[in-house]
Amino acid sequence: MEFVIGLSIALILGIIPANIAKNKGKDFMTWYIYGVLLWIVAIIHAICLPDPSKEDNAKQNIVLLNAQGTSEIPEEIDINANALVEQTIFSMNDNQVFVNCNIRNLSLDKTIVAVKASGKMLNSFDNEIVVNGNSETGVLLQDLNIMPGETGKNRIEVLLPDNEIRKLNLHIDQIKYSDGTIWNNNTSHMVPTCQNRLSEKYLEYAKKYSSKARYHSAIKTDYWQCVCGFANRIESNSCPFCGFEKRNAEIFDLSNIDTNYESYQESKRLKAEEAKKANKKKMTMGLIASAVFAMVIIIILAMPKIKNQIAKRYIEAGNYDKAISLLETMDIDDSQTSLLFRSVHLKKGFSLLEKGECEEAAEEFKQISTNIFSALDGIEYKYPHDVVEDLLRVDDSNDVKALAYEFANQLAQNEYEKAIETYDLLGDYEDCKEKATNLKYEFILRYKDYITYGNRSILERYLNELSEINYKDSNKILEDLFG
Ligand SMILES: [Zn+2]
Asked: Is the pTM of this model over 0.85?
């Protein structure tokens, strides 16, 4: 197992020195095996190998930067040629001058493999150089592989006959294609390029059509000049250099440009205005939307309060059913709503009791308290006792107190405990304190000789309460019974 893992790691690591060596011109497989077997030695060895590409660089010719003819578009071109010398690069080595040419293949379907070109030899001052009585020299470019529409370069530099040459006005004489055919330029037709530079103010406008735009376009009888400066055959519809279309050539013609430029500016201004308007509209819509949104939020937040207010008014006006149906649409967990809900059912219950509709009243009380001691059973005392507590908790108005007071008075006839509880709840209302005290005393007198498990604690509590205020003989009874 460990051996398998170790071997896998070695097989993977071996790639590193093999790759380094391969980049330096060595055989990958040999170095891979070397790397797998002796990794640490192989990697150091591979790193220390001399880099042939860097050596080549060191030996490379010095590029003559100041040499002419390095512009992309030559000053004049042969519009009948199927290829174009786009760029010439001069270099010097061992006191000899060489040239490299970038050739653009203007054919639509053929691949160039060789080009014969010739042209005048000039120095940096455009002075003609004559060698053996000839002011022109031929340049033979071979081993090319330039696809239709593409630009390619000869890899082997061509030696020039004089080391003072810095410019060649090359025109193409012959092209050899990959299909074996040869094109001969019998009808050379040189035309100027890059005529009439566009003034600065038109550049932005022209760049909308061609990123390389620098010149006025022009349509002549046998060729048209593109805004990039290139001269195209009259039958070609778009410029191979920048893609500018012939149908737009009139726009940037010297004679039309002013009018066209003005309407361009006008449309630009209109567009900007429209954009501004659209923006304004967008902003207004945005503002309205946010305002509506904010209002909706406010309404949603305020809704319970508003509804509670309305319910409260209904209750005050005795409109209990309306208040109930409104409150039923609301969240009963809200404390204010819950209070109103209990209050309205209580008030409705009591109003029903007043009319003698006891069962209906009990139904109302059931709504607010499930333990209204099985509400119906308590009806025999006219008012269910537990209701009082609830009632006083949610509504301590004098109306409610009066009802509770009346209720306690009735209970006092046979339900001492419940009556006392109610009087205690009512506290300072009317003579509740006095009545509670009297009733407690009455309760004591009645049961003091019949103490049971059930009434013992109540008796003791009442006696303690009364003895605290020295009521009648309560102290003595307390002493007798529990002392
Ligand atoms: Zn162009």
From this structure: no
